[in-house]
Every structure is written in C-alpha cells, then in structure tokens.
Automatic annotation (TrEMBL):
<dbReference type="GO" id="GO:0016887">
    <property type="term" value="F:ATP hydrolysis activity"/>
</dbReference>
<dbReference type="InterPro" id="IPR050153">
    <property type="entry name" value="Metal_Ion_Import_ABC"/>
</dbReference>
<keyword id="KW-0547">Nucleotide-binding</keyword>
<dbReference type="InterPro" id="IPR027417">
    <property type="entry name" value="P-loop_NTPase"/>
</dbReference>
<protein>
    <submittedName>
        <fullName>Zinc transport system ATP-binding protein</fullName>
    </submittedName>
</protein>
<dbReference type="InterPro" id="IPR003439">
    <property type="entry name" value="ABC_transporter-like_ATP-bd"/>
</dbReference>
<dbReference type="GO" id="GO:0005524">
    <property type="term" value="F:ATP binding"/>
</dbReference>
<dbReference type="InterPro" id="IPR017871">
    <property type="entry name" value="ABC_transporter-like_CS"/>
</dbReference>
<feature type="region of interest" description="Disordered">
    <location>
        <begin position="223"/>
        <end position="254"/>
    </location>
</feature>
<keyword id="KW-0813">Transport</keyword>
<feature type="domain" description="ABC transporter">
    <location>
        <begin position="10"/>
        <end position="243"/>
    </location>
</feature>
<dbReference type="InterPro" id="IPR003593">
    <property type="entry name" value="AAA+_ATPase"/>
</dbReference>
<keyword id="KW-0067">ATP-binding</keyword>
<dbReference type="Pfam" id="PF00005">
    <property type="entry name" value="ABC_tran"/>
</dbReference>
Length: 254
C-alpha cells in the first residue's frame, strides 16, 4: 500500500519505537491527509502519546520512516507549520500569563533575541480572540479552569499559524459542556483548512466532525478509515446534529 501520497501531511511506514528497551509501537504505517480531522484512538497505554511524540521528533524511532509535509522527519525544519497541544498536565505552567503562554507559540517565527514584532502581536491577539480568551490575556494561566487552559494551549498552537494541529487528549478532565465548545473550536479550525490529528479516548463531541481515524491496540494499528461507531453518545445526542460551527466559542465559560 502506498501511504505517502502527495497531500499526506503525516505519513509513517513500518514504524518501530522502543522505550526502556521494550517495543511500544510496532509496524505502524499511517497517513494523515491534508485537510482531514483524524482521531487517534485506543485504550490506555496503547501507544497514542508515544506515536504523537515520535511523529513530532520528540522521541527517536528505531525503525521505519516518518514524513511530514512530504519531507523526511530527519530533514524537516518547518516547525512553524506544526502546532502541538500536549496532554494537559504534561506541561506545568506556574508563572506565565495567558498572553505569555500564547506568545511562546511565536518562537518558531522569531530570530533569536529579537522582541516580538507587530505581526507577532497581531497573531497572538488573533489567536486569543479565536478561542474567546482575549480578555483573560493577563490572567495567570494557572488560575484558569481546565477547559480554558486547553483553549490557551490551542491558541498557542494557532499563534504559530500551524497548518497541522496535533492535540493529545484535549477533552481529558474537562466537563461535557466544555468538550462541546472545544469540539466546535476544533471543527471551526478544520473547516478553515487546518489539518487536525487529535488523540481521543472516545469520539464523543467530535464524532460528527471526524473524517478519519486510526485505532491502536498494544502498539499496533488495528483500524484506519471511518471512525469506529460510537457505542454510547456521551450525552443528549440531538446536539450532535445541530449546525454548530457558526456560533462563537467562549460565551458562558466562566
Ligand atoms: N518512557 C517510557 N519508558 C518505558 N515505557 C514507556 C515510557 N513511556 C510510555 N511507556 C509505555 O508505553 C506504552 C504506551 O504509552 P502511551 O504512548 O503513553 O499510551 P497512551 O497515550 O495510548 O495511553 C505504555 O505501556 C507505557 O507504559
Ligand atoms: Mg496518552
């Protein structure tokens, strides 16, 4: 099977990743097409986070190939095209304000030791506006709710003007209403052309928006293509068919 089609934003071939001497990912061959909204699913410990980290070059792989935007990972340099939203809690931010966290997303655009340019500032404000948190820009990150922190981390990725957004369990630890709002934001970004790879426990609020899925079990791919049927709607399902992408996010989130 030829996975590395033109238009693949991410592709891997026969990836082997070992951690602590144990194989964690085996024979992983996946592709994420441009413009897709792909769920990366699987049980706890199935290797989702490991795959995301390997794709972004944060941990080494022992065998196989990874290609980003058609370029082998080893020679990929366009990191400003990639926004990474790590699992919340993976990053502990004690001091920074919301604006500072989002500003760190502009680092890939800056030359060393130069202050932020007017364009950087514009991009930071736009990202904060997009997630509905401009008025909280000077609030310490740590004072925000879980859902708001998640939106700040998304804004950080948006500030990089990423074409590919990789999110690790953005719904973990946020309540269902906020999950709906995050899903709406993710859907809106995808509709505007951003390719999204999102690690999910269950398809939940994103189910109607997903265009593709990858399911791992014990480090191997057991399913790709249409998202698996969602066994139990996470709450009153009529909401899932409402047109929801046009409304703003951020209202009513305290
Ligand atoms: N640094 C590490 N050293 C050894 N094993 C690890 C390490 N990190 C993760 N693992 C193991 O790799 C497997 C996959 O972990 P992970 O990718 O975090 O799964 P998921 O994100 O799907 O829950 C788990 O069995 C986990 O214990
Ligand atoms: Mg994980």
């Amino acid at each position: 099977m030829q996975l590395d089609q033109p238009g693949s934003v991410i592709s891997t071939e026969s990836l082997l990743v070992e951690l602590g001497g144990l194989p964690i990912l085996r024979e992983v061959s996946v592709a994420v097409g441009s413009g897709e909204l792909t769920a990366l699913m699987g049980g706890n410990g199935s290797g989702k986070t490991t795959l995301v980290r390997a794709l972004l070059g944060l941990i080494p792989h022992q065998r196989g190939t990874i290609t980003l935007f058609g370029t082998p990972l080893e020679s990929f340099r366009d990191w400003h095209r990639v926004g990474y939203v790590p699992q919340r809690g993976a990053v502990v931010i004690k001091q920074a304000t919301v604006r500072e966290v989002v500003s760190s997303g502009r680092l890939a655009h800056r030359r060393a030791f130069r202050p932020l340019s007017p364009r950087d500032h514009a991009q930071i404000e736009a990202a904060l506006t997009e997630v509905g948190l401009l008025e909280r820009a000077n609030t310490p990150f740590i004072e925000l709710s879980g859902g708001q922190q998640q939106r700040v981390l998304i804004a950080r990725a948006l500030a990089t003007e990423a074409e590919l957004l990789v999110m690790d369990e953005p719904f973990a630890g946020v309540d269902l209403r906020v999950q709906d709002e995050l899903a709406e934001l993710i859907g809106r970004l995808n509709a505007a052309g951003t390719t999204v790879l999102v690690v999910l426990h269950e398809t939940g609020a994103l189910a109607p928006l997903l265009t593709n899925s990858i399911v791992l079990r014990e480090g191997r791919v057991i399913h790709t293509g249409a998202p698996p049927e969602h066994p139990a709607p996470h709450h009153d399902s009529p909401g899932l068919t409402r047109p929801r992408l046009m409304t703003g996010i951020g209202e009513g989130v305290a």
